[in-house]
Amino acid sequence: MFMLFLTFIFCCGVCYSGESDLGYSLSIGNAIDVFANYGDLSQVTQVVSADYEDYSSETVEPFREKNIRVFDNIISIESPGDSMVALNIQLCETFEELLAGYFVNFKIEGTEQPWKAFLGDWVYDEIMRTFGIEYETQEDNCCYVLVKLSKTHNTVQIDTTKQIHVKEYLERAIDGLDVNDTAAVRRFMKSYGTHYIDSYVTGDFIYQVFKYKRSGFHLLKSYVRRGRRRSGPDNLRFYFSSYFLKQVGDIRMASGNKRIEEWARNNLRDSQYLFSRPSLLRLYYNANVAFKLNDMLDNGALLGLGLKILKPLFRDRYKRDRYAEIVENDMKLWEVNA
């Protein structure tokens, strides 16, 4: 039986041991250089809706960043997705809170704002278009609500109960690395990476942003805190009416699937007073429509990613701590400047 849950959240040259060590798809335990595409990781990971019109589910991969196999014996734990999808509503005081909420399942060790690694180089106009809303140049003191329906296909993480072994060519490189020479450490980063893939989640989700007048947002927030949502969907609809809203964003797919986006615009229309517009809240009111959409969601997007600094490469504690320190310091600098 289909079930729909509603939740609220406040919100240089390299010598490899073989060609098989280099790849561009998701491989648990493999290392990437986060700085290679920092600020624009969304171009090599499918995490937000794309602007192109010729979408094909056969050509879109959730992850396309260059990565290197640095461990000999990685064992992963895989969990299949849940057949139940979740309608999630996040209340965000600011646009940056909205971005943090969207990327809540993305963890990059060394940074407190993972979203900047994916969109930090984008101008706000581009980011807002990606989220389906119009950019306004003047300060409008608005708040945002992110509504999304997600379906997990697969969750993978490293089995931490097993001892891992570093590739021999990495051991040789580490033995010859002077960690007190920051230039040498940064060359090592470019050659062998800064982080390894500790976990990831694939699947897809559909999302929509509602831009609120601040007064209306606070009324919605108060309504949610009182737990009144249990009294019926019509009450919730009232707080998503034009009386409180400044802008209703377009419906988007994390995978960029234009076919499903168009289906949603046509089949998730909500009529209030004289207005009719696409709204993901229709999924909350109508389980049959939610069930149809659930069948459409595939495995074209990256829903979560855990990246950890390559500390397990280093047996020597001093080298390990020094390497981590340089990576973390650089991460903070890139984060501030993004």
From TrEMBL:
Q: Which UniProt keywords apply?
A: Signal
* Leader sequence segment: 1-17
Name the source's superkingdom. Eukaryota
Q: What is this protein called?
A: Torso-like protein
Q: Which organism is this entry from?
A: Bicyclus anynana (Squinting bush brown butterfly)
Q: Which gene encodes it?
A: LOC112048338
